[in-house]
Write a structure and sequence with these properties.
CATH superfamily of the largest domain in chain A: Thiamin diphosphate (ThDP)-binding fold, Pyr/PP domains
Order of helices and strands of chain A: EHEHEHEHHEHEHEEHHHEEHEEHEHEHE
Oligomer: heterodimer
Largest sheet of chain B: 8 strands, mixed
CATH class of chain B: Alpha Beta
Number of helices of chain B: 11
Shape of chain A: globular
Number of strands of chain B: 10
CATH superfamily of chain B: Thiamin diphosphate (ThDP)-binding fold, Pyr/PP domains
CATH class of the largest domain in chain A: Alpha Beta
Number of domains of chain B: 1
């Protein structure tokens, strides 16, 4: 299929990722707001656009566990979920990571308190060792999904990826999306070939890998060090893949890890992810039109956390207003903690303000983000601002 | 239908590591040893938490997921991957205990059976969570003392009947479902030989008495397995496509269950009334099976 534009919802963009990436194993279990992803894929399998094993499992745990072993055996695999489904996958998600299977999974955010979107689902899986990338549009979903396979399958990385979007807001909203040319995607993403065989007659080789993955006969901590190193490597690989994608398809997302929006001359910046970053762009435009020196940093990749990027960004601004559509009860926002941690060793650090917004699907309006920008700018000017943690 | 295969026909090569972590008299290890000899280099093994990874260090390739509940799911993924890779010569085999089959793994088992995944599921049934020290599972027999059903002033051991997972799997109308016993290896090998040559979901539940958990001296493991068959406690049968039901070994006359119960420490406390209750249950079920022999299963 040659390149074309089509007006479609984010969930259909995910199905196009699966088609274009030529995933050969798809496990499917429906959950709102992910459901139409597996329906679109089913249609594409039914009409021959996708040539793959399409397995309708009896639950998300099986969806994850079967994609894990299919990927381990050496086929490109895919699954998708949302909220509670992601929570149910927790146990086999660790097996996927422990066995270093480059599985790619789409996530349509649905929080842990009900049907509405926030990042508390993904936050609950923060320590599974999966890479996690956020998207703010259906187009970004399509592009990120394709990049995700290339990043995951890179031998320097070999870790699974979640590419995520805010449920409903992206899953069910139509927008014009560019669908890249199939042949071009094939050139960008060649067929997956595992370097770790799990086939009859290949016992010793597969055993050797298994033993490495589980630290058998090694320093018991060694495989954790391997996983951590792979995450560190991923930072470089994500940048490379983002740059290559931009060169081939004309679209990239910052440097793959973070994107700066109108930060030149800015004294204060807002840090946001996903669709809040989209709303944030409008808020920044309006603030700057009023002469207020506030910019935006969009966090694209949250795992691995781009600490080095924030070490570089920190000294450029006097204050950062960090928006988290999530919370670790008892600790605070995910990115707030990470960003402060990343900037700790700097001689000159910006002030940091925490904002919780959009949890449990609460609407985040342009004026809300403008207020966040104004408060952050006030802090940048040296004023004492309170409270440090604000629920918008 | 399956045909017994004489033991002498079994591959002389050993695929199981001579040094493994099984207890003395472990019949689970014998199950793994036989399965590996029958399936040879066609076998790709999917492992879950159970005694299996401890006793079954086999030469064949395997993947271990640390997902106790995941045997059905993980074998599903392997089977589809091999189909996609044109490697359907591989026999995806999972050797799972009774807990991973009848309890925590039951949803995945039913899902894989319903989808008729191209998988061979061997359940070595030692009637409890033996790897963790003998806690009751739904496959534990009534009145058995386990570490979570201890006998005391207010407890007579396990209160409930053993879950009939074999019948449940057969009701999924899978291509092949059989029970087997480690005391009848010719029957077991015959069933494995039959199962390995057909596609789809195949399930064999094999009785594997556990000296450690059932509390008997290791040398009696096979004898107890045999007495269970001879008393009707462990009927040997197979169901093909959920229809054709056949008892594969019919003792001329059933021995009383009392003898085999008394051989096991886990039933040391059992009273005459409780023996009678068990006997009535076994006799009634055996009679129902005999009435169905050679006919439709349901």
């Amino acid at each position: 299929m040659p390149e074309k534009f089509e007006v479609m919802v984010g969930n259909k963009a995910v199905a196009h990722v699966v088609r274009l990436a030529r995933a050969r194993f798809i496990s499917a279990f429906p959950i709102t707001p992910q459901t139409t992803i597996v329906q679109y894929i089913a249609d594409m399998v039914a009409n021959g656009e996708i040539d793959a094993e399409y397995v309708t499992t009896e639950g998300e745990l099986t969806a994850q566990a079967s994609a894990f072993t299919a990927g381990a055996a050496g086929v490109r695999a895919f699954t998708a979920t949302a909220g509670p489904g992601l929570l149910y996958m927790h146990h086999p998600m660790l097996a996927t990571r422990n066995n270093r299977v480059p599985l790619v999974m789409a996530l349509m955010h649905r929080g842990v308190k009900g049907m509405d979107p926030d990042q508390t689902d993904m936050m609950a899986q923060r320590e599974t060792g999966w890479m996690m990338m956020e998207c703010e549009s259906g187009q970004e979903i399509l592009d990120t999904g394709l990049m995700a396979y290339k990043i995951a399958e890179d031998e320097r990385v070999r870790l699974p990826v979640i590419f995520a979007g805010d449920g409903y807001i992206l899953s069910y909203t139509d927008e014009p999306i560019n669908i890249p040319d199939e042949a071009k995607v094939d050139a960008f993403l060649p067929p997956y070939k595992t370097t770790i065989p799990l086939l009859p007659n290949q016992g010793p080789e597969s055993k050797a890998y298994q033993m490495k993955a589980w630290s058998v006969g090694r320093d018991p901590q060694a495989s954790f060090q391997d996983d951590q190193q792979a995450m560190e490597n991923a930072k470089k690989v994500i940048k490379e893949v983002n740059a290559e994608y931009k060169k081939m398809f004309g679209r990239g997302y910052g440097n793959g890890l973070v994107e700066e929006y109108k930060t030149k001359d800015a004294e204060a910046v807002i840090v946001a992810m996903g669709t809040i970053a989209s709303t944030g762009r409008v808020a920044i435009d309006r603030l700057q039109a009023e002469g207020k020196k506030v910019g935006l940093i969009k966090l694209k990749t949250i795992k691995p956390f781009p600490a080095e990027e924030f070490e570089k960004l920190g000294p450029k601004f006097k204050a950062m207003g960090i928006i988290d559509r999530n919370i670790s009860i008892g600790s605070g926002g995910w990115t707030f903690g990470e960003i402060r941690n990343a900037m700790y060793e700097l001689d000159e650090r910006p002030k940091t303000l925490q904002f919780h917004a959009g949890l449990n699907g609460k609407e985040v309006r342009v004026q809300d983000i403008m207020k966040i920008g104004e408060k952050t700018l006030k802090a940048a000017g040296g004023a004492k601002v309170a409270p440090l943690v604000e629920w918008v | 239908m399956s045909k017994p295969v004489p033991l002498v026909k079994l591959d002389e090569k050993e695929y199981i590591a001579a040094a493994n972590q099984s207890c003395q008299g472990c019949t689970g290890a014998s199950v793994a040893r036989i399965v590996a000899k029958v399936l040879k280099d066609k076998m790709v093994r999917q492992e879950v938490a159970c005694c299996g990874p401890a006793f079954g260090n086999l030469e064949q390739p395997s993947i271990y997921g640390e997902v106790f509940e995941g045997a059905g799911a993980m074998s599903t993924g392997l089977a589809h991957a091999f189909k996609r890779m044109n490697r359907e010569d591989a026999i995806v085999t999972t050797i799972v205990g009774d807990g991973g089959t009848t309890d925590i793994g039951f949803q995945g088992l039913s899902g894989a059976a319903e989808r008729n995944e191209n998988v061979l599921w061997i359940c070595y049934d030692n009637e409890a969570y033996m790897n963790t020290g003998g806690q009751r599972s739904s496959a534990t027999s009534k009145y058995a003392e386990t570490t979570t059903t201890p006998v005391g002033e207010f407890s007579r051991g396990k209160k409930e009947r053993k879950k009939n997972v074999a019948a449940m799997v057969a009701l999924h109308r899978v291509p092949y479902m059989a029970t087997a016993s480690i005391a009848y290896p010719e029957d077991f090998i015959g069933k494995l030989e039959y199962a390995k040559n057909i596609k789809g979901f195949r399930f064999i539940q094999i009785s594997a008495p556990c000296p450690t958990g059932w509390r008997f001296e290791p040398q009696y493991a096979v004898k107890i397995a045999k007495e269970m068959v001879l008393s009707g406690m462990w009927p040997l049968y197979e169901v093909i496509n959920g229809e054709g039901f056949r008892i594969t070994y019919k003792p001329k006359e059933l021995k009383p269950v009392k003898d085999v119960l008394k051989m096991q420490g886990r039933f040391r406390h059992i009273t005459e009334d409780e023996i009678k209750d068990t006997q009535d249950d076994v006799t009634a079920y055996w009679n129902r099976l005999i009435a169905k022999d050679g006919k439709e299963f349901f």
